[in-house]
């Protein structure tokens, strides 16, 4: 359940700030004990990326209606976005307590546990998510990611290839498989996957950086310039990209440009 699907009031009122003002007038006026009004206020704060006020409004909503799985779900999303991964996992547990296990909530809980460094618990969640939805590309990908950081490259490859078979449009899947192929010294396959990852999403600086590192390591720094400059146009303040331009210039022999 996306936060954007739970409330459409901002469409009726013109924009989310108007909606915030409207729901504030309710919760601080005639409807201070309306869980729905507090929840709607929180949703619109989320659309405005105001996580602090959204968290506060959701807590009021839960205090009034402690059986609101939607409020717990969105609170879990907030804690995930703000790096409070243990709290995030606990909120998803509340959703599961109220609604039972579903593939998406279990998947999100697994992601929170992954980022909290609890890989074994995360793996259990991703397997459970996959059991609940065998066609989940995301569950396969996250299992691949877990095994990758645990240095089990064989298992990681098995799961990322399943993810790609289900969804061939996700750049992160190709990025992971490209890195696995690089570790296996399959430079041809790695180049294909890392390049595809960048072509699918040129704005993804992390994937561009992986591709450029690969090109430099295989003696192709000249080839790195086009994806780097394209990424810089989208992410002009990313110092990593500018640094890699200098490294690429240096390795392709343009040392004067490298120092600029």
Which structural traits does this protein have?
260 residues; mainly alpha; disordered N terminus
Report what the structure shows.
The chain is mainly α. It is 75% helix and 0% strand. Helix 8 packs antiparallel against helix 9. It starts with 8 loop residues before the first helix and ends with a helix. The N terminus is likely disordered.
Mean pLDDT, as a whole number? 90
Order of helices and strands: HHHHHHHHHHHHHHHH
- What's the alpha carbon Rg, rounded to whole Å? 22 Å
Apparent shape? flat
Helix content: over 70%
A few lines on this structure:
By secondary structure, the chain is an all-alpha fold. Helices cover 75% and strands 0% of the residues. The protein has helices at residues 9-13, 16-30, 35-47, 51-64, 69-81, 85-99, 103-115, 119-132, 137-149, 153-166, 171-183, 187-200, 205-217, 225-234, 239-251, 255-258.
């Amino acid at each position: 359940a996306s936060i954007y699907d739970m409330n459409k009031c901002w469409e009726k009122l013109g924009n989310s700030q108007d909606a915030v003002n409207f729901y504030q007038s309710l919760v601080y006026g005639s409807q201070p004990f309306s869980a729905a009004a507090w929840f709607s206020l929180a949703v619109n704060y989320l659309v405005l990326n105001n996580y602090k006020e959204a968290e506060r409004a959701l807590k009021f909503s839960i205090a009034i209606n402690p059986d609101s799985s939607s409020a717990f779900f969105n609170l879990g999303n907030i804690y995930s976005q703000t790096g409070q991964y243990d709290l995030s996992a606990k909120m998803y547990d509340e959703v599961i307590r109220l609604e039972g296990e579903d593939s998406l909530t279990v998947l999100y809980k697994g992601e929170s546990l992954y980022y909290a460094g609890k890989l074994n618990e995360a793996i259990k969640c991703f397997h459970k998510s996959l059991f609940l939805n065998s066609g989940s590309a995301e569950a396969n990908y996250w299992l691949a990611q877990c095994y990758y950081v645990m240095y089990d490259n064989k298992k990681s490859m098995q799961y990322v290839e399943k993810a790609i078979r289900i969804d061939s449009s996700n750049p992160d899947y190709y990025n992971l498989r490209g890195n696995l192929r690089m570790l296996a010294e399959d430079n041809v396959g790695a180049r294909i996957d890392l390049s595809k990852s960048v072509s699918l999403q040129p704005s993804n600086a992390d994937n561009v950086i992986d591709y450029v590192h690969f090109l430099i390591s295989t003696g192709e720094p000249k080839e790195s310039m086009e994806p780097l400059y394209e990424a810089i146009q989208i992410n002009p303040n990313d110092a990593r990209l500018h640094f890699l331009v200098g490294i690429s210039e240096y390795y392709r022999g343009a040392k004067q440009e490298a120092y600029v």
